[in-house]
Amino acid sequence: MGRGSLILTALLLLFFIVPADLLAQCSICTRTAAQLGERPAKALNAGIIYLGLTPFVIIGYIGYRWWQNNKIED
C-alpha cells in the first residue's frame, strides 16, 4: 500500500469517525429543517457537511500528488 493510499484511507476513516453534529445550515435551511423534524434535519446537516468537504478533499489530494511529483531528491 503506497503512502498516498494510506493517507486517503486515514482521511476517509477520520471522516466517518468524526460526529456530524456540527451546525452547517444557513438560516433558511435551519427553518426548513425545523419543519421537517429532527431526523431529516440531521440528514440535511450531514449532506451539507459532505458537500462542503468534498472539494477540499479533492484539491488536497491533487496538491499532495503534485507535491510528491515535484519533490527534489537530496
Quick summary:
The protein is mainly α and 74 residues long. It has helices at residues 3-17, 27-36, 38-69.
Describe the main β-sheet briefly. none
Principal-axis shape equals elongated
Distance, first to last CA: 24 Å
Q: Determine the number of helices (DSSP H or I, runs of at least 4 residues).
A: 3
Task: Pick out the low-confidence regions.
Answer: none
Pattern of helices and strands: HHH
Number of strands: 0
Fraction of residues in helix: over 70%
Strand content: under 5%
Gyration radius, in Å: 17 Å
- Mean model confidence by pLDDT: 80
Task: Give the class from helix and strand content and strand pairing.
Answer: mainly alpha
Transmembrane segments: 48-67
Keywords: Membrane, Transmembrane, Transmembrane helix
Topology (elements, then pairings):
Blueprint: H1 3-17, H2 27-36, H3 38-69
Helix pairs in contact: 2-3
Please name the defining characteristics of this protein.
0% strand, 74 residues, 3 helices, mainly alpha
Report what the structure shows.
It is a single chain. This protein is mostly helical. Helices cover 77% and strands 0% of the residues. It is built from three helices and no strands. The relative contact order is 0.13.
